[in-house]
Design goal:
14 helices; 74% helix
């Protein structure tokens, strides 16, 4: 009888850890595949749009472990009815063998686990790390929206042509094409800055959470809007440089900035500018509203 009582007690005590270990074992190969594709760029072009998951997924795990774990323990153990549909759907997607469905099963299972253990309060508590996971899960959304980036492509091409003209570079702009010395550069959907824009907004969300600024609606909206402007501006400059290098025969530096590590360095520098940008927004808001909560939402 003592063993009969002890086994359920141990099972109840370590039940959560068993579930975490099971999820880790199931999804470790999938996440390893994502990381291999993001690092070595041997994954599909659409899935490269989610390479911000390289830092986003560890940050989500960090938040769940350090920031919300103590509050999670204090929540009442209650199972929401929606937990079962999420878990079943996630399981079916995982077993389907279809790459996109298998990918989407990861956030679905995590949502289901939250609802199973702590109900809606648990889901609300983990909403930000779950959001980071969802936004880093590869899917076909970039492929679906790429046909609608034509206005952005044309805008970038026009701006790049305008800049080159003022530096006395003979350039002709036709919609999304730039011609310099009979050489053509296309501002393709992938070159329109959509990937950088998505990455910039993702990193911006991480910074807002890290600094505690996410609680301020005014600062958050201002920072996200400024991030969009900064990202588009940086991409205009990058396409201007690419057009200049290609049009003037500087193919080595063109390849370095276009497909080499120079492009990664350029993106990293642009993302680094988000830190002083957020600091400036906070300073301006505190300067004009010292000691008030007018901007809080």
């Amino acid at each position: 009888m003592q063993l009969d009582r002890k086994f359920p007690t141990l099972l109840d005590r370590y039940y959560g850890w068993i579930v975490i270990a099971a999820i880790a074992l199931l999804y470790a190969p999938l996440i390893a595949h994502w990381y291999d594709g993001w690092l070595n760029k041997n994954i599909s072009l659409e899935h490269e749009y989610f390479s911000h998951g390289l830092i986003g997924l560890p940050f989500a795990a960090y938040i769940a472990w350090t920031d919300t774990r103590s509050r999670w323990r204090r929540l009442s153990e209650v199972t929401h009815p929606l937990a079962v549909p999420f878990l079943i759907t996630g399981g079916i997607f995982y077993l389907s063998g279809l790459p996109d469905f298998t990918n989407l099963s990861f956030p679905l299972v995590l949502i289901g686990v939250c609802l199973w253990f702590k109900g809606i309060p648990g889901l609300k508590l983990e909403k930000f790390p779950l959001l980071l996971v969802i936004l880093a899960t590869p899917n076909e959304i970039p492929y679906l929206i790429s046909p609608y980036t034509l206005p952005l492509q044309s805008f970038i091409a026009s701006c790049a042509g305008f800049i080159l003209t003022h530096f006395d570079v003979p350039v002709t702009v036709e919609q999304i094409y730039l011609y310099v010395n009979d050489k053509i550069v296309e501002v393709a959907p992938h070159c329109s800055g959509l990937k950088m824009l998505l990455t910039s907004l993702y990193v911006a969300l991480m910074l807002l959470y890290w600094t505690g600024t996410l609680t301020s609606r005014g600062k958050t909206l201002t920072f996200l809007g400024s991030t969009v402007i900064l990202s588009v501006t940086a991409n205009i400059i990058r396409n201007t440089l690419l057009t200049f290098f290609h049009g003037t025969g500087r193919e080595q530096i063109f390849a370095w900035l276009h497909e080499g590590w120079g492009g990664d360095l350029y993106s990293a520098c642009m993302l680094g500018l988000l830190i002083p940008l957020l600091g400036s927004i906070e300073w301006i808001a505190d300067y004009f509203h010292p000691g008030t909560d007018l901007e809080e939402g």
